[in-house]
Amino acid sequence: MREVMMKAQALAEAIVETGMYQKMQELEQQVTADPEATAAIADFVEKRNAFEALLQNPETAKGEFAVAGQAYAAAQSRLDECELVVALRKAQQEYNDLMENVNRILRLVVTGETEEGGCSGNCASCSGCH
């Protein structure tokens, strides 16, 4: 068990040392320090929460949905125009892709399957091939 934990720690350290991870961390710090980016994020979160609150209320008038929807869309557009936020999203997606690939490799080695819930070809492992 100790060997597995040590290898997991080594894998985590290797991931943290990748340029991809470093870039994502740097961009997160830049976004946090940038007034325009933080304002765009805060506005987006506020508009999204307001729109979602209206969705939860069965007595909300259609006009309120329209106004809130437009404000939400405008906040999304503002966020999409913020270069730092766009760069951070791209870096986060690249990191997520890396982690998905790591998980696929682990799943393949451990289960012999390339996808969750997929068939390994060994009928003894499930009841699907009778």
Q: DSSP strand (E) fraction? A: under 5%
N-to-C CA distance: 36 Å
Mean pLDDT: 89
Which secondary-structure class do the elements indicate?
A: mainly alpha
Q: Any low-confidence stretches, pLDDT <50, length ≥5?
A: none
- What is the assembly state of the chains in this entry? single chain
Number of helices: 5
Shape: elongated
Major β-sheet profile: none
The string of secondary-structure elements, in order, is: HHHHH
Tally of DSSP β-strands: 0
| Helix share, percent | over 70%
Rounded to an integer in angstroms, the radius of gyration calculated over CA atoms is 22 Å
List the helices and strands and how they pair.
Blueprint: H1 2-16, H2 19-33, H3 35-56, H4 62-81, H5 83-111
Observed structural traits:
single chain; 130 residues; mainly alpha; 5 helices
Structure characterization notes:
With 130 residues, the chain is mainly alpha-helical. Helix content is 78%, strand content 0%. It has helices at 2-16, 19-33, 35-56, 62-81, 83-111.
Q: What is shown here, in short?
A:
The chain has 130 residues and is mainly α. The protein has helices at 2-16, 19-33, 35-56, 62-81, 83-111.
